[in-house]
């Protein structure tokens, strides 16, 4: 079989990118061109759309962001400051290929991708978070990446009765009580996404943490994807917004993306009602699956596990040069 040839798309070729995403089962809304361009704009990074060709046919691709950070050259897919849980490589028609072809395409693509990075960008650190629909990470291991499993929650939502009965009893009571006490769930728009952004920012300030996404970034995402692929849901009491969630919809999957900040409503749990109403809405609007993103911290996984969704695995893969590791260790040592 011929050799896979890797190259970065020229800007006048960017229009073909979304067709590659559409053909790839690993493709997510975060892979789409508009989202990637907005990410590059708000992170002062350079976007490369890397495609591997076998002849004239694209057989693999990965979007990467390149930037200099503390004198080092870093390649990321995705960037940690953009609230994107996963990105990484995608493979057109992967689900229809036989296993031997899948392995060949991925393995050869990864080798050529690493060679491209060494020759063109010479990064000191490579950081990739894969799509949940890519379970085979052996090519990363074979190319000396450190691989760490990560998790979301995901569930079929086509049968609401089965889903409801699977919830933890405490959760069902919380939902019923919140609705009985008068919380109302509404779809919302631009004003409410700003409310959600400000609520998240305040929560990060309270924890003395830096908010990883700017209000301007979220507004650009809103303008590019609302209302077809982005929905905003708000929980209100007496007409006043209490908390909210930004949801993405792509293909057959609804993803609970960001929001759901804690409230001061003692003994009441509007977030539980909010997420249930989002699931109901997804079911009624033809979505087959719902993702609750982020199941990697004990402090939040308990609350998300009450829905009894299935675990969905993806992987964080990293490769660092020795100099980067030494300097980073020294920086950590003198910072303590």
Descriptive labels:
single chain; alpha+beta; Aminopeptidase; 2 domains; twelve-stranded mixed β-sheet; globular; disordered C terminus
- Give me the oligomer status: single chain
Query: How many β strands by DSSP?
Result: 12
In helices, the fraction of residues equals 25-40%
- Largest sheet, spatial ordering of strands: 1-2-3-4-5-12-6-11-10-9-8-7
> Can you give the mean pLDDT?
91
CATH architecture of the largest domain: 3-Layer(aba) Sandwich
Number of domains: 2
Descriptive report:
- 38% of the residues lie in helices and 28% in strands.
- Helix 9 (270-284) links the parallel strand 10 (253-259) and strand 11.
- The model is unreliable at 329-336 (pLDDT under 50).
- It is an alpha+beta fold and 336 residues long.
- The protein folds into two domains: 5-149 and 316-335, Gcn5-related N-acetyltransferase (GNAT) (Aminopeptidase), CATH 3.40.630.30; 158-287, Aminopeptidase (3-Layer(aba) Sandwich).
- The chain contains eleven helices and twelve strands.
- The chain starts with a strand and ends with a helix.
- A twelve-stranded mixed beta sheet has the order 1-2-3-4-5-12-6-11-10-9-8-7, sandwiched between helices.
- The chain has helices at residues 17-22, 33-43, 99-121, 138-142, 160-166, 169-180, 190-206, 215-225, 270-284, 298-305, 322-335, and strands at 5-8, 46-54, 57-69, 72-77, 125-129, 146-156, 184-188, 230-237, 240-250, 253-259, 289-292, 310-320.
């Amino acid at each position: 079989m011929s050799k896979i040839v890797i190259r970065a798309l020229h800007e006048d070729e960017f229009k073909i990118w979304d067709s590659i995403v559409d053909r790839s089962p690993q493709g997510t809304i975060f892979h789409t061109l508009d989202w990637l361009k907005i990410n590059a704009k708000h992170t002062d990074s350079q976007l490369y759309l890397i495609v591997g060709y076998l002849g004239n046919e694209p057989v693999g691709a990965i979007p990467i962001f390149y930037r200099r950070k503390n004198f080092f050259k870093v390649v990321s897919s995705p960037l940690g400051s953009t609230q994107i849980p996963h990105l990484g490589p995608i493979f057109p028609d992967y689900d229809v290929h036989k296993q031997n072809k899948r392995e060949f395409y991925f393995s050869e693509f990864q080798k050529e991708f690493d060679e491209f990075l060494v020759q063109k960008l010479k990064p000191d650190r490579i950081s990739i978070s894969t799509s949940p629909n890519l379970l085979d990470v052996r090519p990363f291991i074979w190319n000396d990446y450190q691989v760490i499993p990560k998790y979301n929650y995901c569930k079929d939502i086509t049968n609401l009765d089965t889903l409801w009965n699977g919830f933890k009893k405490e959760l069902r009571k919380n939902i019923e009580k919140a609705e009985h006490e008068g919380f109302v769930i509404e779809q919302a728009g631009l004003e409410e996404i700003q409310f959600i952004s400000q609520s998240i920012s305040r929560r990060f300030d309270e924890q003395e943490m830096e908010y990883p996404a700017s209000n301007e970034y979220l507004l650009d995402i809103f303008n590019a994807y609302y209302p077809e692929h982005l929905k905003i849901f708000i929980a209100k009491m007496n007409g006043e917004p209490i908390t909210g969630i930004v949801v993405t919809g792509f293909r057959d999957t609804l993803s609970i993306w960001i929001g759901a900040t804690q409230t001061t409503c003692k003994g009441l749990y509007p977030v539980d009602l909010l997420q249930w109403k989002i699931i109901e809405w997804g079911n009624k609007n033809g979505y087959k699956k719902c993702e609750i993103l982020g199941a990697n911290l004990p402090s939040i996984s308990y609350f998300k596990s009450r829905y009894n969704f299935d675990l969905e695995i993806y992987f964080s893969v990293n490769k660092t040069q020795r100099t980067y590791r030494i300097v980073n260790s020294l920086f950590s040592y003198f910072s303590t």
